[in-house]
């Protein structure tokens, strides 16, 4: 048999002999080094790696010479290969012999052009750079030059067993990114980072679709994994199913056998690649025991060796440099092994007695911690125990003496001439076993002299004094010493001539006095004792357990039974022995000496489990337990264990796998259904509880607010409900939109002192001029916070600061503008007219509270649900400039197309100007979100309005609805209808929707269904996530030149109004032309709108004419105007309030007959034909003609 010889020289380990690698792993060497025996001239060289990372040792010249000395001729690097900070003129051809690196490769901050690792096949990655990379190539170029890495010479690298790849910032490296690293890296989840390298160059044509390592047809990458057939579990040497490498191969192979591998995945056993090296113990199926393996080998790196290198020791089945903790190096049969210490590992310490260390004292006692052997003597003198004032040595703490509990051996003498008065024995040396006596003091090796407090020696473990005499004298209280059989302790003495005088024991406590005081040995002791109690016996009369004498062992009682050795020592039975009642459990310490087994039985041995995968002489052994609890061998074809004796009972067989799979699937499905149902129920309950809490909290905070009572006793009492919040109570989540005055965020309000999270909208008001801050709480803020109407967005709170934050209810449906645009085919007349009513009611509420909106548009009307509209963004301008008489939109987009003419020209904002914006808002809604004057530039709108042009009639509106819009756009603001009248008018229309709006839809919902659906929506208060689009503000671009569409001319409007005045005395006409008294109306201009402006500060050209019909105006107090109105309308009847109409509990107007639809004679203009109609229904046209009809 060919043997293996190992020796080490300098940095290399040479393995000579039967390392039968493939051709790539061997080389011829006819000149054997150091005269060792070579087998067929084959030699294998290993070298140690480094672990310096990016740090260097000395200058680059020293570092280069060290690497050249280390790696020249090296084939396997045991560790890491690190090359850093090398110049471009260095020659690294000595690296070409390296075929394997067990750690990682680091190549960083170098300047030479090529990495010559042409024979490297495997990087094992047992250690990783940055804990994740097995190959790291970084920053390899000259900072101020043209030199740098251009090519990775890794043409034979085919496998990285652990870790990933990092190739970054190599300015001239062109081919590395093209390499198929997934074919090389075994771990599919490993990080592959390749970036910031040189431009990619094309591979040679001979490579085809295969990547390459560099230019030339010999630089094509060899793929060994991604091209393999599906049947291959690892690498392959071809694409056919029969060309798979052995499972133990790494880096590819030349054939299917385990001897054809280029490298081994685990270990190389002198040629074949194996999963593990031959173990030191083998299972003997005849004796049912693990026995030594004569062919055992040890793991050294990835190689199985018969013996470890000279500077290594054997730890189990591996070669290691140092023994692990709690083990010690022991040489057995010429082999150094790591063995368990069996307690404290040996530690030798120097003793006392020298000139500088005469006695144990407070300064040196810590040096004896964990010492098991004292090299020399131990002296305890007065200067050490009580201190030495002359040398400034403090007294010794008696507790410190317990350090000597670990001492087992003293090579010279133990001399005790002083001892702490609090200690009555020498039990700190209870584990002392031997006093060698190599160097004596006047023939004595044990001396105890004049210790007045000493009553017993307490040296319970002392069994041997090799040389020297015992001197114990002058201890007036010492007993028990005369019971010791000193002859047995001195039996190993090497000086027979001194046996006559081995003990000098005198002047201690008389024996009679000791007996009288009860200081006698325990009855269980034999041959004397060291002190009181059964634990101090020199030997026992019957049995002993752990050094203490006992009358009996636990043969029949106790949780863990015992047996007795021939010397009378009680030892526990093996843990696998089953406790027996009424009889002994075992006859000895072994698992084969049990009366019965607690678990299983393998032959005569009791075992916790049957052997599985244990190495035996002919292979691996698997066993299974039978019904009697005995281990039986599996079928010879079972390779992973079994559950029975037949081949069908093997682990992994089809029958067993199918049964296990079916059971697992059934149990998994049941568990999944149960867990899913539980999660669903808990989620529903949690969400319901959260929603209920949110509803209650929202209702509570909407109903209750902070009340501000007047400070002046003469002031009128008022209770204003407004809530001022702290910034810490608000949390913004995401941006919903931007507007003229600021931004809107979806957010959460967490009221102070509460845990509920309320979804809200947070509008942040910005003053772009920097003139206004919002630290003070104003009356206008309190007024805004006090508004509470179902058609006005409720302000839940106000947060002051640099920017003002208004917290409002979160709208669930977005803006009205987007809703009518997105659902134009689903809207019916009933809903549109009700929205008109609701907006008018909301504006009437603002009018009653003296709040001018200034920016009413469909984009600023939010939908609480599909049926309830709410007005938002009211009163913000007054917050910004409360002291100004007018507000100028400077450097922002201005909604010119929605503004009244007096607002555009003179910056006067009143409730009447809001009526104009209301008409435009209704037009937007009836036009399904169309933009007013969409083909006109904003700066042209004022001239158009002064000429009498207005927005055209929407397609779905009859003339009745359109005439309401026209009334809102009257130049004379005093002629425009009030919001109260508009609410009444649209309420009347909402009772007969098809009469006023003509909408062609495929599925027109019936009124009862709409009512039911609306009621359900109104009851639903759950939070719905939505996004608000940015409000569409007018862009004042002078470059736009679009043609003006045909709008309704002023002459046509006047002719229609004349017809209405002449021919209708009832129905719509009567409602529209009712006389109203304006003297006591609540419709007032806002405080910020008093007076007329002197200039127009808008982003429009300065050629806008400020002249026109608005120069002279009539006020509502004008008697001529009032008399004309009264004469035309037939007197000033009282206008009913919009709240007095018939509505449901939610303010929604339902279809039905109104009081105004009585008997009257009207003329209906249908397709230019005037048809008289009399009866309860005044209007009657065909569906197709109704949008062209109007009353005359």
TrEMBL record:
Enumerate the Gene Ontology biological process terms. cell surface receptor protein tyrosine kinase signaling pathway; negative regulation of apoptotic process; neurogenesis; positive regulation of cell population proliferation; regulation of signal transduction
Asked if the keyword Cell division belongs to this entry, the reply reads no
Which CDD domains does the UniProt record give? FU (cd00064), TM_ErbB3 (cd12095)
Subcellular location(s) per record: Membrane
Q: Which residue intervals define the domain Protein kinase in the entry?
A: 730-987
Region listing for Disordered, in residue ranges: 1109-1152
Keywords from UniProt, A to Z, are: ATP-binding, Disulfide bond, Glycoprotein, Kinase, Membrane, Nucleotide-binding, Phosphoprotein, Receptor, Signal, Transferase, Transmembrane, Transmembrane helix, Tyrosine-protein kinase
Q: Which reaction does it catalyse?
A: L-tyrosyl-[protein] + ATP = O-phospho-L-tyrosyl-[protein] + ADP + H(+)
Instruction: Tell me the superkingdom of the source.
Output: Eukaryota
Gene Ontology cellular component terms for the protein in this record: basal plasma membrane; receptor complex
Q: Give the GO molecular function terms.
A: ATP binding; neuregulin binding; neuregulin receptor activity; transmembrane receptor protein tyrosine kinase activity
Query: Could you say which enzyme class this protein belongs to?
Result: transferase
Question: Which residues span the membrane?
Answer: 664-686
Which InterPro entries does the record cross-reference, listed alphabetically?
Egfr_JX_dom (IPR044912), Furin-like_Cys-rich_dom (IPR006211), Furin_repeat (IPR006212), GF_recep_IV (IPR032778), Growth_fac_rcpt_cys_sf (IPR009030), Kinase-like_dom_sf (IPR011009), Prot_kinase_dom (IPR000719), Protein_kinase_ATP_BS (IPR017441)
Its membrane topology is listed as: Single-pass type I membrane protein
Q: What is its EC number?
A: 2.7.10.1
Enumerate the residues binding ATP. Answer: 736-744, 763
Main site of residence?
A: membrane
**PANTHER family for this protein:** RECEPTOR TYROSINE-PROTEIN KINASE ERBB-3 (PTHR24416:SF88), TYROSINE-PROTEIN KINASE RECEPTOR (PTHR24416)
User: What protein family does this chain belong to?
Assistant: Belongs to the protein kinase superfamily. Tyr protein kinase family. EGF receptor subfamily.
Name-wise, this protein is Receptor protein-tyrosine kinase
| Taxonomic path | Eukaryota, Metazoa, Chordata, Craniata, Vertebrata
């Amino acid at each position: 048999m060919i043997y293996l010889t190992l020796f080490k020289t300098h940095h290399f380990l040479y393995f000579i002999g039967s390392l039968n690698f493939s051709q790539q792993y061997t080389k011829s060497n006819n000149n054997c080094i150091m005269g060792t025996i070579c087998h067929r001239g084959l030699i294998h060289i290993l070298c140690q790696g480094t672990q310096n990372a990016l740090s260097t040792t000395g200058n680059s010249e020293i570092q280069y010479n060290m690497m050249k000395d280390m790696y020249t001729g090296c084939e396997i690097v045991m560790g890491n290969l690190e090359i850093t900070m090398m110049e471009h003129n260095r020659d690294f051809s000595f690296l070409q012999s390296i075929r394997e690196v067990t750690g990682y490769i680091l190549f960083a901050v170098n300047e030479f052009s090529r990495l010559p690792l042409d024979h490297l096949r495997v990087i094992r990655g047992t250690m990783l750079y940055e804990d994740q990379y097995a190959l790291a190539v970084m920053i390899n170029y000259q900072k101020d030059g043209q030199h740098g890495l251009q090519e990775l010479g890794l043409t034979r690298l085919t496998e990285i067993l652990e870790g990933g790849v990092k190739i970054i910032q190599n300015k001239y490296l062109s081919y590395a990114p093209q390499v198929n690293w997934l074919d090389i890296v075994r771990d599919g989840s490993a990080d592959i980072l390749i970036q910031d390298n040189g431009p990619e160059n094309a591979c040679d044509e001979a490579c085809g679709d295969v990547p390459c390592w560099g230019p030339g047809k010999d630089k094509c990458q060899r793929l060994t994994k991604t091209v393999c057939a599906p049947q291959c579990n690892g690498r392959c040497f071809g694409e056919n199913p029969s060309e798979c490498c052995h499972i133990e191969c790494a880096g590819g192979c030349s054939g299917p056998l385990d001897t054809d591998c280029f490298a081994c995945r685990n270990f190389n056993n002198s040629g074949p690649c194996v999963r593990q090296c031959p173990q030191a113990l083998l299972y003997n199926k005849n004796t049912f025991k693990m026995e030594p393996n004569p062919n055992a080998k040890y793991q050294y790196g990835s190689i199985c060796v018969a013996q470890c290198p000279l500077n290594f020791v054997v730890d189990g089945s591996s070669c290691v440099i140092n023994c692990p903790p709690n083990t010690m190096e022991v040489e057995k049969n010429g082999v150094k092994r790591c063995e368990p210490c069996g307690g404290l590992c040996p530690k030798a310490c120097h003793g006392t007695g020298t000139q500088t260390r005469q006695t144990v004292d407070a300064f040196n006692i810590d040096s004896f911690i964990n010492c098991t052997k004292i090299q020399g003597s131990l002296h305890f003198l007065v200067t050490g125990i009580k201190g030495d004032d002359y040398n400034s040595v403090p007294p010794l703490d008696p507790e410190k003496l317990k350090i000597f509990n670990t001492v087992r051996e003293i090579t010279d003498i133990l001399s005790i001439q002083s001892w702490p008065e609090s200690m009555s024995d020498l039990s700190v040396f209870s584990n002392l076993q031997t006093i060698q006596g190599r160097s004596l003091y006047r023939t004595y090796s044990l001396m105890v002299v004049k210790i007045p407090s000493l009553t017993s020696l307490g040296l319970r473990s002392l069994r041997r004094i090799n040389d020297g005499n015992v001197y114990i004298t002058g201890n007036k209280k010492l007993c028990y010493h005369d019971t010791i059989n000193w002859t047995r302790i001195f039996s190993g003495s090497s000086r027979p001539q001194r046996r006559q005088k081995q003990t000098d024991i005198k002047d201690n406590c008389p024996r009679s006095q000791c007996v009288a005081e009860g200081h006698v040995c325990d009855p269980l002791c034999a041959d004397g004792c060291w002190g009181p109690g059964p634990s101090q016996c020199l030997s026992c009369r019957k049995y002993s357990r752990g050094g203490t004498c006992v009358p009996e062992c636990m043969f029949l009682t106790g949780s863990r039974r015992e047996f007795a050795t021939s010397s009378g020592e009680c030892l526990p039975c093996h843990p696998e022995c089953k406790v027996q009642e009424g009889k002994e459990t075992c006859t000895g310490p072994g698992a084969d000496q049990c009366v019965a087994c607690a678990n299983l039985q393998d032959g005569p041995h009791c075992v916790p489990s049957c052997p599985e995968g244990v190495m035996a002489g002919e292979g691996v052994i698997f066993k299974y337990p039978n019904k009697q609890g005995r281990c039986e061998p599996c079928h010879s074809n079972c390779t992973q264990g079994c559950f029975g004796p037949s081949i069908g009972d093997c682990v992994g067989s089809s029958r067993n796998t199918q049964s296990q799979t079916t059971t697992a699937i059934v149990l998994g499905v049941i568990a999944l259904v149960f867990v899913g149902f539980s999660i669903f129920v808990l989620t529903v309950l949690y969400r319901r509880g959260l929603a209920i809490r949110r509803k209650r909290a929202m209702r509570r905070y909407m109903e209750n607010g902070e009340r501000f009572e007047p400070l002046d006793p003469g002031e009128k009492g008022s209770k204003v409900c407004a809530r001022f919040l702290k910034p810490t109570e608000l949390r913004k989540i995401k941006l919903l939109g931007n507007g003229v005055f600021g931004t809107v965020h979806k957010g959460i309000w967490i009221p102070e002192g509460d845990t509920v999270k309320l979804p809200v909208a947070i509008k942040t008001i910005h003053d772009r001029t920097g003139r206004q801050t919002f630290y003070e709480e104003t009356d206008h803020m309190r007024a805004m916070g006090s508004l509470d109407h179902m058609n006005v967005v409720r302000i839940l709170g106000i947060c002051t600061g640099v920017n003002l934050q208004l917290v409002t209810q979160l709208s669930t449906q977005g803006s009205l503008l987007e809703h009518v645009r997105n659902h134009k085919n689903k809207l019916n007349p009933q809903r549109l007219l009700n929205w008109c009513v609701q907006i008018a009611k909301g504006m009437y509420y603002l009018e009653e509270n003296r709040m001018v909106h200034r920016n009413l548009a469909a984009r600023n009307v939010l939908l609480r649900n599909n049926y309830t509209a709410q007005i938002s963004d009211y009163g913000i301008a007054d917050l910004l400039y409360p002291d100004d008489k007018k507000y100028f939109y400077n450097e922002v987009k201005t909604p010119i197309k929605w503004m009244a003419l007096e607002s555009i020209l003179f910056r006067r904002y009143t409730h009447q100007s809001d009526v104009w914006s209301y008409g435009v808002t209704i037009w937007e809604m009836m036009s399904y979100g169309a933009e007013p004057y969409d083909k006109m530039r904003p700066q042209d709108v004022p001239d158009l309005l002064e000429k009498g042009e207005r927005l055209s009639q929407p397609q779905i509106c009859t003339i009745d609805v359109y005439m309401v819009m026209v009334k809102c756009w009257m130049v004379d603001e005093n002629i425009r209808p009030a919001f109260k009248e508009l609410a009444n008018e649209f309420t009347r229309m909402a009772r007969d929707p098809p009469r006023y709006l003509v909408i062609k839809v495929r599925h027109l919902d019936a009124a009862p269904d709409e009512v039911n659906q609306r009621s359900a929506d109104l009851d639903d208060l759950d939070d719905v996530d939505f996004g608000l689009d940015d409000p569409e503000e007018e862009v004042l671009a002078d470059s736009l030149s679009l043609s003006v569409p045909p709008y309704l001319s002023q002459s046509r409007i006047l002719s229609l109004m004349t017809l209405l005045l002449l021919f209708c005395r009832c129905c719509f006409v009567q409602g529209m032309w009712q006389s109203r008294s304006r003297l006591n109306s609540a419709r007032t201009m806002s405080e910020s709108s008093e007076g007329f402006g002197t200039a127009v500060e808008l982003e429009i050209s300065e050629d806008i004419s400020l002249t026109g019909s608005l120069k002279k105006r009539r006020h509502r107090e004008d008697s001529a105007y009032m008399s004309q109105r009264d004469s035309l309308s037939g007197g000033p009847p009282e206008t009913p309030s919009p709240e007095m109409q018939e509505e449901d509990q939610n303010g929604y107007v339902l279809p039905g007959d109104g009081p105004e639809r009585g008997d009257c004679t009207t003329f209906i203009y249908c397709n230019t034909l005037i048809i008289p109609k009399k009866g309860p229904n005044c209007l009657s046209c065909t569906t197709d003609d109704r949008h062209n009809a109007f009353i005359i």
